[in-house]
Automatic annotation (TrEMBL):
<dbReference type="InterPro" id="IPR002882">
    <property type="entry name" value="CofD"/>
</dbReference>
<dbReference type="InterPro" id="IPR038136">
    <property type="entry name" value="CofD-like_dom_sf"/>
</dbReference>
<protein>
    <submittedName>
        <fullName>Putative LPPG:FO 2-phospho-L-lactate transferase</fullName>
    </submittedName>
</protein>
<dbReference type="InterPro" id="IPR010115">
    <property type="entry name" value="FbiA/CofD"/>
</dbReference>
<keyword id="KW-0460">Magnesium</keyword>
<keyword id="KW-0808">Transferase</keyword>
<dbReference type="Pfam" id="PF01933">
    <property type="entry name" value="CofD"/>
</dbReference>
<dbReference type="GO" id="GO:0000287">
    <property type="term" value="F:magnesium ion binding"/>
</dbReference>
<dbReference type="GO" id="GO:0043743">
    <property type="term" value="F:LPPG:FO 2-phospho-L-lactate transferase activity"/>
</dbReference>
Length: 124
């Protein structure tokens, strides 16, 4: 399983994906690729992701970021996408689940990790 952290989609994840070979490796790996939305209720979890996303023409929403990454079944990198319970997302070709994403305590964090593992078909 490959887990994309809820980091800035442009200056963090985008920079990593720009490294030659990384995007291709994600597209061709046998492992499932699951991402965690860095946006909750239209606001980035931290930092300036909203400003960065607007520069590349992507709305600040869990759905828009999921669509920006795209489905591996098309030309993207995702098999699964976790969004916060207050968000919804329709990302064609990607299985989307809503779980609490704010890691406020160990049980909530564990629920998020279990959901990511489940999306990837990994049994803990």
């Amino acid at each position: 399983m490959v887990l994309l952290a809820p980091s800035n989609p442009v200056v963090s994840i985008g920079a990593i994906l720009a490294v030659p070979g990384i995007r291709g490796a994600l597209r061709t790996t046998e492992a499932k690729v699951v991402g965690i939305s860095p946006v909750i209720d239209g606001k980035p979890l931290r930092g300036m992701a909203d400003e960065c996303l607007s520069v590349i023409g992507v709305d600040t929403s869990a759905e828009a970021v999921g669509r920006h990454y795209g489905a591996r079944s098309a030309t993207g990198i995702l098999d699964g996408w976790l969004v916060h319970t207050t968000d919804t997302a329709d990302v064609p070709g990607v299985e989307v689940r809503s779980v609490p994403l704010l890691m406020t305590d160990p049980p909530t964090t564990a629920e998020m990790v279990r959901a990511a593992l489940d999306l990837a078909g990994v049994k803990p």
